[in-house]
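1st attempt posting a full record on here, be nice pls
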Amino acid sequence: MGKLLLVGCGKMGGAMLDGWLARGLAAADAIVAEPVEAIRPKKAGLRVVASTSDVGEKPDVVVLAVKPQSMDAVLPDLKRFADEGSVFLSIAAGKTLRYFASHLGTAAKVVRAMPNTPAAVRQGITVATPSRGVSAAEKKRCHDLLEAVGQVLWVEDEALMDPVTALSGSGPAYVFLLVEAMAAAGARLGLAPDMAMQLARATVAGSGELLKQSSEAAQQLRINVTSPGGTTAEALKILMAPDGIQPVFDKALAAASRRSKELAG
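the predicted structure (as tokens):
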């Protein structure tokens, strides 16, 4: 994985660091820059600093895991590494390759990535896109870093990062909302709220694991559970109606994708 500088060690940055170390990255090959003392990792052999200005040696990869609104403040000091040929791997939502070129220089090598929160349990999925100067070997290195917390896909057209953000980046929130909605509906039918929530959580979590392990398409798995004339079919008449769940998701993802474009400026 080379020499790494992780800038920001919040939930996503911390999850990635744990994944790298579990995959065999030597702690001595990583430096973490995190200004907030309370969330600085405490791992044997790992160098942790409060600011990137405390880092002198050039890293092979600089992983940018700070919040998008903090990016303007951290990039000026990091430009020296861009000038020396370090690759930048950003997981900041809405920050485009053009944005990084304007702060790090047009020759800077940048990979823009959009992971999602299941990365915290190494079950995430990330989509990434490289700038023009990123070599095949550098792309592979970034792929390996991202793969430590889940699956990785690549796109050449950066414009696709907006719908990616809408679908998988924001997607866990939609699943959690589904659990909330199922539990609330169960409670309205007379179940104790705690029991309804337990049933909803276990059903969604178990269905997700079945989806992961099965070679069958999601559509076929749905069909497998739906007996003609049964209870599931009756519910699906509502959910799959012309004014059911699909048009709601169409509008929701379109709104999220539109907002992603707006955040990019």
